[in-house]
Design brief:
Elements (H helix, E strand, L loop, with lengths): L5 E6 L2 H12 L15 E4 L2 E6 L4 H6 L5 E5 H7 L4 E5 L5 E8 L13 E4 L2 H9 L6 E4 L6 H4 L5 E6 L3 H5 L2 E10 L1 E5 L1 H6 L1 H16 L1
Length: 211
């Protein structure tokens, strides 16, 4: 009996390349991460891989456009979707940080006023509210490092792998907000109807990545 096709939404960029390389090693041959292509849908055996903007992956999975997905935990937390998060993967590791200009001092004190540039307004709000601070948030979708350099914000909340981009833009890390890595997420209906198919793929993938 032929396996049902499973739609997998994967975060474009480094995670897509890494996951597809591992899939090729566990019986799903492909060269998706190796070729420069604008294609967004790839059929590999019983998989249909959707190359998605990272912030869109949780929504595709929640609404059933994908049965499961692989994306950074930052995007999952920010989206706050109704999905299952059964597995963490040791790839896509980075951290979310609060950063400000090198020549400024930011001390977080209850009740203070601060303006933050970020593409993660939900996570930023929660982080500051735990410190009894109500930040003014400036939502940005790219080049977040520019915000404090142009006076648009006092500081930023963004992700970094090595901290080099932050340093190169004359900024410094004030505090690490959270550690981030990729996670497998699953649509709740697909978890029931395609459980065996999804488990077969994810189990093989997890074993290979952890070797």
């Amino acid at each position: 009996m032929q396996s049902k096709r499973v739609r997998v939404a994967i975060s474009k960029g480094r995670i897509l390349k890494e996951v597809c390389a591992y899939l090729a090693k566990v019986g799903y041959p492909n060269d998706i991460g190796k070729k420069d292509s604008r294609e967004l849908i790839f059929n590999v055996k019983n998989l249909q891989i959707l190359a998605c903007k990272p912030s869109d992956v949780p929504r595709y999975v929640e609404l059933g456009a994908a049965d499961c997905g692989i994306v950074g935990s930052d995007c999952i937390l920010e989206a706050e979707c109704d999905i299952y998060e059964p597995i963490s993967l040791p790839i896509g590791k980075c951290r979310m940080v609060l950063a400000c200009p090198k020549n400024k001092k930011v001390e977080l004190k209850a009740g203070m006023s601060i303006k933050i540039g970020t593409k993660y307004p939900r996570i930023t709000q929660e982080f500051f509210l735990k410190k009894n601070i109500a930040p003014e948030i400036v939502f940005l979708n790219g080049s977040v490092e520019l915000a404090p350099l142009t006076g648009l914000a006092d500081a930023i909340v963004d992700i970094t792998e090595t901290g080099s981009t932050i340093r190169e833009n004359n900024l410094k890390i004030v505090e690490t907000i959270m550690e981030i890595s990729a996670k497998v997420i699953v649509n709740k209906t697909s978890f029931r109807t395609l459980n065996k198919e999804i488990e077969t793929i994810t189990t093989a993938l997890v074993k290979k990545i952890k070797i």
